[in-house]
Amino acid sequence: MNTTTRIVIVGGGPAGLTAALELQASGVHDITVIEADHQVGGISRTVEHHGNRIDIGGHRFFSKSDWVMDWWRGMMPVAASADPDAARELRYQGAVADAPSATASETDHDVMLLRSRLSRIYFNKQFFDYPLKLNPDTLLKLGPWKTFTFGLSYVWARVNPRRPEASLEDFLVNRFGRKLYGQFFKEYTEKVWGVPCNEISAAWGAQRIKSLSITKALLHALKQVFGLGGKAEQTSLIESFLYPKYGPGQMWETAARRFVEQGGTLLMRSRVERIDIVNGQVLGVAYRDADGNEHALPCTHLLSTMPIKDLVQASASAWPDEVRAIASNLSYRDFITVGLLYPRSAIPRQLDDNWIYIQEPGVNVGRVQVFNNWSPHMVADPGTLWLGLEFFCKEGDPLWTMDDEALKALGHREMVQIGLVQADAPRDAVVLRVPKAYPGYFGEAYKRFEELQSALDAVPNLFLIGRNGMHRYNNQDHSMLTAKEAARQITSGQVDKAAIWGINVDDEYHEEK
Predict the structure, then answer these.
(1) Cα–Cα dist 429/411, whole Å
(2) Which residues, 6+ apart, have CB-to-CB distance to 416 below 8 Å?
(3) Which class in CATH covers the domain with range 132-233?
(4) CATH number, span 7-43+251-330+442-507
(5) Closest C-alpha among 52, 48, 49, 68 to residue 60
(6) How confident is the model over 401-445, as pLDDT tens digits?
(7) Which of 217, 318, 392, 491 sits at a 20 to 30 Å CA gap from 236?
(8) Over the stretch 10-43, which tens digit does the pLDDT of each residue have?
(9) Where are the domains of the chain?
(10) Exposed, middle or buried, 8 (CB in 10 Å: 0-12/13-18/19+)?
């Protein structure tokens, strides 16, 4: 490693801050993180509104990477759990080490809690397990005819799979059968992405739910019934997780403080406007600070978590027309959270869920979070229930441009319509818009993504990390691992960009051990 190494990191989310701290741990001292927002954490930040906190998109702190789990515990200790079942399950999954890592108290400020996981599907005014489980409760709710026809459809799909498996529709039908796909996957997925499932790449399913299947869900359920135990093979089936006391942003605020205390420079409310790439090398960036002043910052290495679309635009002169065209036409899915606060008496059902996937027809809301169940400290008054309604949209469409008061009214109206709330109005409400929340796995530009990736990877001192930085639907632990690998390559001088992309190669890591 050159003693004059000067690092610039664009973005203070999980990938950016992990890279910063890993580089510091390796002896690099001249590191600047440039963050456009007034908060760190990216989409893993926590937003506070009148004492109630919002977790944008929901973040379970569980990873099959021991390194990630150790990293999190090194940043924030785990409080001893008052829930012995949650503690037993999480320790069984290897997520909590033995003492002394779990000797902190929930009364401490900077701690993680052990939380029980519950996600359900809400369809036809009934709750179904998520992921779907072939247990008596599910079969009773579906009824004998649907159970029979869904079963036949599943068997047919296994015997006659679609080949080649090109689209997300192919992927889902092959694993669940056409009937079950049409009932529980198609409408919700198209609500999330805004395009038909047959236009979405199978790569999305491979990355997110590759190994999850009816057979494995059934086996997991049978093991639970007969007490056979065994570690859950899919992270979607893991029943407990860690969670920072005050939401996911607390982890990254803690990381940012440590980075600054160790001599790092963190520039908040500063936006990169130009990236200077000359003769195939990044020489520096230009950014505009909170007061509107522009600054030039030279660097020997640039780690980028900014959307690839914006990265290429900021360095446009370095790229041929075809590369600029691919980047400018990449698709993204945007996201709105509407927070609604109700007295508990306004909720007719017991809602112990972290997430509720809304499959009811005729509503725009796609998913509902119950923030009380992520952590009781997310809510100012325990006598209230703090809901986060998630709407998937695209910048400029009618949902995105709807004014805040209309969105609040829409959210409340839909909660009453589907029977989750009985109230004339919420006590409080807030609207959050999150642009470029999900990189799109569809469109003509995405089909040519490898060309774009190759062009960017050819710049030896430019490292793409994180979700938007790589245009991949990474969870925060994957983002952290891409940052770790980039930091290793910089400090060792052994650059191999394929190893960063390979963190999720064959898309097996997230869901299958």
Answers:
(1) 10
(2) 422, 423
(3) mainly alpha
(4) 3.50.50.60
(5) 68
(6) 999 999 999 999 999 999 999 999 999 999 999 999 999 988 999
(7) 392
(8) 999 999 999 999 999 999 999 999 999 999 999 9
(9) 7-43+251-330+442-507, 132-233, 332-439
(10) buried
